[in-house]
């Protein structure tokens, strides 16, 4: 019998797992995918928002403003990357400038620190590529950018080190409420028992709730499409640029990324099939059309990828973080759309302390270690450190991904780490091998061979993403 | 300090290294793979060498001709070694390398030849809409998996783009028992060599859909490619409604172009030509940075390896000349640019103090033309012309421009005209 079962290992599920690992309790996290952060957390803007947008007093406002501050601690404790970009919200004319004033009002009410109003010219002194048509900006210096996958990895790795169990490829197929515990059926076969259930299933959170009751909300998923510009555009834009928010959300942004790339997007469209992350001509054209309102001379010729992400917008306006009204011990984390990533560090403690009051029933885990070792990015280290590492392991000398300068040792570590992955996509998420200009054209073959060698399997058994996704159909040079 | 460091051990690098070593230079060649020969190793089809050897070889056989000479010359080389940095300080190049055996090292040289080849354009660069399943793969990667590793990427294949690698792979996959449903080309003409259209598609009854493109990629529940949609396009390359066909496939090979790989030059202030997507060079294949030469597919994408060899030999000769005679007065130069009906032209600059009998101009036409004449203008005055008859964007042309026709000032424009 488990004390807690968390369903879903996105950024939110992982942050709750980390928070629960502070207690002496038996905690399990179940993930239907072959990796953490593989649906909603997989594809988003990666921004830690300052708080100019959410309704003052809402959970979105309170938790995201707290979360923004907490990321500074996570940077130190969990070694997640942060890029302190600051942000500009841009207006183009008198009418839009009025909306800036309204946002300023919200910004003040939300007690966002350090905000400023700048004229277009003042802002262009800081960001020369800002569109000439911009007349006024709301500057939000506490806006940051992170690496969402690394946030989930860091939280889950830390949770695992502190005793949480994590199982991937475990799709919850039924939930039964017994007298004082729950039975969770997985993949139509195994059953896990638990006292408490935490539903952090993102876009599937209403379906999971629907297994025991009429869920208190419906997920109405939205899709956002993006372009990725190669990291060689680094410096084109150093701030996050927001247009004015509309009913379609925060609009098409220009967002510098931790590793130097720039994201353009998202578009925003409600979708019927919650998992349909398909890019469209219209969506991509929409991004191009609107991104040029924010910056001049965007280097569209540096596009290396487009993708679509899913947002679990719910029928509630705010985050839904509550216990089920019908079933004591079943908790919802619903409708965690933007600013969900920002709020992630605050959502764990809010749920565990304020909503669940876990401390009243469970003792603190005396061996709890808040620290998580950094993922080593060899070619970003100083020379002295590189020299020392090369002495210890020669495989740091072997470059596998030439575009992003990723070494064989880093890939081996990503395969075997506490939250190791055996898939091409999992390796890419962990070390960025294949995320560069040639998009794996050069290194994918080498990574397949390394995975096969490390696991002692045939390349035919190496997966692209989930367990069924075998890359090759057959071997052609076989002895008959 | 080395006289010359050659980066890349494919056809270009081997030729340049041999050329410089034969003239007594101290040369080091650096190759990232475990073998010399570069991309030729995976090109197991024939058709190589007709120009250089007047004989038809497979890719590995062609490479062997040069690897043998290279080894006989006893030229220094490093395998399995990646160049991770290149900079120049006080007339000396510093090449930073990384490999398993020696970790990170620096090598110094008076001149550097960059022959790093090209990389394949990917789905991301042309933004094909749809899902992101696996089974969408560049043709060159599939070729490597099949010919080097013996791994077949799919059984029901469609190919986007009629570049040579795509055509070669259409035949190759068919011979391995895969079903090849067709090749779509967005242009109204093929982008591959005519002989490849005949020998790889026609001979195997594989349909070629000209003016067609893939408009959507659809994956199944396991994230494997299951379907693609293909539409005819209009003159502006927009899909025409009502022309959509669906193909059930497990693999989409992309043969949508090669891009010179000069990322190694990121830290140097080289001038870039947006047309070739590589650096601008003079007639000696020297960039605006003295002593830095670029040749082969790293400079411009070639259809025939023979031309890579010849170009790289010329680059090697130019390196020798620089090292032997020192720099000329580089301030006296004129620029070359493509005029009517030309996609690009190399070199982009002629240094007047670097005299040769002929300057080799390489270019591609921007459209299919019959009975075309290549005209070279300087200050709007015709200084040279040559009849070419039949030109295609898919086939690189070269002409020899006599040096004595060039005047000492006025920029040059190269054009293609059809005699009316």
Q: What are its keywords?
A:
heterodimer, A: 480 residues, alpha+beta, FAD/NAD(P)-binding domain, Arc Repressor Mutant, subunit A, 8-stranded mixed sheet, 5-stranded antiparallel sheet, 12 helices, 29% helix, globular, B: 420 residues, alpha/beta, Immunoglobulin-like, 3 domains
Q: Quickly count the domains of chain B.
A: 3
CATH-assigned fold name of the largest domain in chain B: FAD/NAD(P)-binding domain
Determine the structural class of chain A based on helices, strands and strand pairing.
Answer: alpha+beta
Question: Major sheet of chain B, described briefly?
Answer: 7 strands, mixed
Largest sheet of chain A: 8 strands, mixed
Overall average pLDDT of chain A? 95
CATH architecture of the largest domain in chain B: 3-Layer(bba) Sandwich
Q: How big a fraction of the residues of chain A is strand?
A: 15-25%
User: What would you call the quaternary organization?
Assistant: heterodimer
Q: For this structure, what is the CATH homologous superfamily of the largest domain in chain A?
A: FAD/NAD(P)-binding domain
Residue-averaged pLDDT of chain B, rounded? 95
Number of helical stretches of at least 4 residues of chain B: 7
* CATH C-level name of the largest domain in chain A: Alpha Beta
CATH class of the largest domain in chain B: Alpha Beta
Are there runs of chain B of 5+ residues with pLDDT below 50, and where?
A: none
**CATH A-level architecture of the largest domain in chain A:** 3-Layer(bba) Sandwich
The stretches of 5 or more residues of chain A where confidence is low (pLDDT under 50) are: none
Biggest protein-protein interface? A-B, 56 and 48 residues
Per the CATH scheme, the topology name of the largest domain in chain A is FAD/NAD(P)-binding domain
Can you describe this structure?
- The complex is a heterodimer of chains A (480) and B (420).
- With 480 residues, chain A is α+β, with helices and mostly antiparallel strands.
- Chain A has helices spanning 11-20, 59-78, 94-109, 120-126, 148-161, 205-209, 281-291, 340-355, 383-392, 408-416, 424-431, 444-455, and strands at 2-7, 27-30, 47-48, 82-83, 87-91, 116-119, 136-140, 144-146, 165-167, 172-177, 182-186, 190-199, 222-229, 240-242, 253-256, 262-265, 269-270, 303-311, 320-323, 330-334, 399-401, 406-407, 474-475.
- Chain A has three domains: 1-81 and 143-219 and 312-374, FAD/NAD(P)-binding domain (3-Layer(bba) Sandwich); 87-141 and 236-270 and 284-301, 2-Layer Sandwich (D-Amino Acid Oxidase, Chain A, domain 2); 378-461, Arc Repressor Mutant, subunit A (Orthogonal Bundle).
- In chain A, the strands form five sheets. In chain A, strands 1, 2, 9, 10, 11, 12, 19 and 20 form an eight-stranded mixed sheet that branches. In chain A, strands 13, 15, 16, 17 and 18 form a five-stranded antiparallel sheet that branches.
- In chain A, helix 10 (408-416) packs across helix 11.
- In chain B, strands 1, 2, 5, 6, 7, 8 and 22 form a seven-stranded mixed sheet that branches. A five-stranded parallel sheet of chain B has the order 10-18-12-13-14. In chain B, strands 25-23-30-27-28 form a five-stranded mixed sheet, with no helix packed on it.
- In chain B, helix 1 (11-22) links the parallel strand 1 (2-7) and strand 2 (27-30).
- The longest helix of chain B has 21 residues, at 305-325.
- Chain B is globular.
- Classes of the chains: A alpha+beta (480), B alpha/beta (420).
- Chains A and B meet through helix 7, strand 18, helix 9, helix 12 and strand 23 of A and helix 3, helix 4, strand 11 and strand 15 of B.
